[in-house]
Amino acid sequence: MTNTAKPRSSWLRAATVALAFTALPGAIVLAAPAGTAAADVCASAGRRISVGGCVNIADAVAPYVPPPTYYAPLPEDPPPPPPVSGCVGYNGRWVHASGCN
């Protein structure tokens, strides 16, 4: 009596395992929550008396951060435009307009 079910069973098992491994990364990506980022730091101190607290670092530092105009330009930022000025003169007869330095 020969057993012909064994090769088919192992082939079916291998196909099932391969299919499971190919579907697993997609399931992980779909199950990952989008969420939002937060930078909270919590600390506690004390030996017998415990004092603790949490603070959001971004909110705590925000009043002390200079505005973006004070920052140095980044290499990918475009250069500032050249200064533009103009002079207009009138001598009673002629109007003269030119660029001034």
Describe it.
The chain is 32% helix and 22% strand. It has 101 residues and is an alpha+beta fold. It has a domain of 64 residues. A two-stranded antiparallel sheet has the order 1-2. Strands 3-4 form a two-stranded antiparallel ribbon. A hairpin with a 4-residue loop joins strand 3 and strand 4. It is elongated. The N and C termini lie far apart (106 Å).
- What distance separates the N and C termini? 106 Å
Q: What is the number of helices?
A: 2
Percentage of β-strand residues = 15-25%
Q: Which segments are poorly predicted (pLDDT under 50) over 5 or more consecutive residues?
A: none
Radius of gyration: 36 Å
Q: Work out the helicity level.
A: 25-40%
For the secondary structure, the number of strands is: 4
Arrangement of strands in the largest sheet: 1-2
SSE sequence, one letter per element: HEEHEE
Keywords: Signal
Signal peptide: 1-31
InterPro entries: TAT_signal
What's the structural blueprint in terms of helices and strands?
Blueprint: H1 5-31, E1 40-45, E2 51-56, H2 57-61, E3 86-90, E4 95-99
Antiparallel strand pairs: 1-2, 3-4
Signal peptide: 1-31
Keywords: Signal
